[in-house]
């Protein structure tokens, strides 16, 4: 029997070489980013030898040579180097707490720079500026209502309400602390005149933050102070917030009502009757019923 020609045999399968994984070489000299943030709700991790210090107010110390240091403060705050701005903001905090007389003449300029830093997308710079605003509130209080600081303070207040309303927890918590420091450091009446416009803001989160600050301010007031602002004005603010979308705004509205009720009926024997008469005399029936129900429940 003749042998089968090898030419008709099945071809031998040739094994293809496996692809090698590509390795990208990273030069050791390649520049690393200044700030690495994997989660916007966490503090940024800074590389290199220049971390940002978030120093609690109680740990700040006085400046050794404040008369000399104050001369370069505004220049440092306006630097193009963000780390230098952060260092200058911490110096601003020290001036506010320990050398406020030196800071006062340039306070309006400092506040404008703080607003600019709050708008910066870099979280570390934003947080440091928010901390600086809190220390300025503690140091100067009602002086921020006076010219030329008043307009600058308005801008700071708006930015704090915005920062306290955002999703970036790292900055949001600090902004809430600053708003609390503001309420604790300032006379309620002039502060309420600044805050009350924001409870009608189109942004529901800003409305809620403004409402919370108003409720804290109202809780500090006596009846005479409330009457100066307007008892009915407080109740109307509460009426507008009772059906707000955010529960924080609604809770703040109830807190405002309770504060007004307690002040108005403090020396009254028939507290509920006094309150009911006030509400029914000044509000439409449906609103009066809702307000009366808050303190009777």
TrEMBL record:
Please list the residue ranges annotated as the TOG domain: 62-289
The record's annotation in Pfam families points to: CLASP_N
InterPro entries reported in the protein's UniProt record? ARM-like, ARM-type_fold, CLASP_N_dom, TOG
Q: Would you say which domain of life the source belongs to?
A: Eukaryota
Gene3D superfamilies, per database record = Leucine-rich Repeat Variant
Protein name, per record: TOG domain-containing protein
- The species this protein was found in: Datura stramonium
């Amino acid at each position: 029997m003749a042998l089968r020609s090898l030419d008709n045999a099945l071809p031998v399968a040739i094994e293809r070489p496996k692809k090698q994984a590509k390795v990208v070489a990273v030069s050791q000299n390649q520049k690393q980013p200044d700030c690495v943030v994997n989660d916007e709700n966490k503090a940024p991790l800074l590389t290199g030898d220049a971390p940002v210090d978030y120093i609690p107010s109680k740990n700040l110390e006085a400046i050794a040579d404040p008369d000399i240091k104050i001369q370069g403060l505004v220049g440092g705050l306006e630097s193009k180097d963000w780390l230098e701005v952060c260092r200058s903001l911490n110096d601003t905090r020290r001036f506010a707490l320990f050398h406020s007389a030196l800071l006062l003449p340039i306070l309006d300029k400092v506040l404008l720079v703080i607003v600019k830093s709050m708008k910066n997308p870099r979280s570390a710079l934003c947080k440091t500026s928010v901390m600086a605003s809190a220390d300025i509130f503690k140091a100067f209080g009602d002086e921020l209502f006076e010219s030329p600081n008043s307009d600058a303070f308005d801008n700071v207040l708006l930015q704090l309400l915005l920062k306290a309303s955002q999703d970036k927890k790292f900055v949001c918590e600090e902004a809430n602390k600053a708003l609390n420091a503001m309420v604790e450091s300032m006379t309620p009446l002039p502060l309420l005149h600044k805050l009350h416009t924001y409870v009608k803001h189109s942004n529901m989160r800003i409305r809620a933050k403004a409402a919370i600050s108003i409720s804290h301010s109202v809780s500090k007031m006596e009846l005479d102070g409330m009457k100066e602002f307007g008892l009915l004005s407080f109740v109307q603010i509460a009426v507008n917030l009772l059906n707000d979308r955010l529960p924080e705004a609604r809770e703040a509205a109830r807190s405002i009502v309770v504060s007004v009720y307690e002040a108005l009926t403090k020396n009254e024997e028939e507290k509920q009757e006094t309150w009911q008469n006030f509400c029914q005399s000044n509000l439409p029936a449906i609103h009066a019923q809702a307000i009366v129900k808050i303190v009777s429940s």
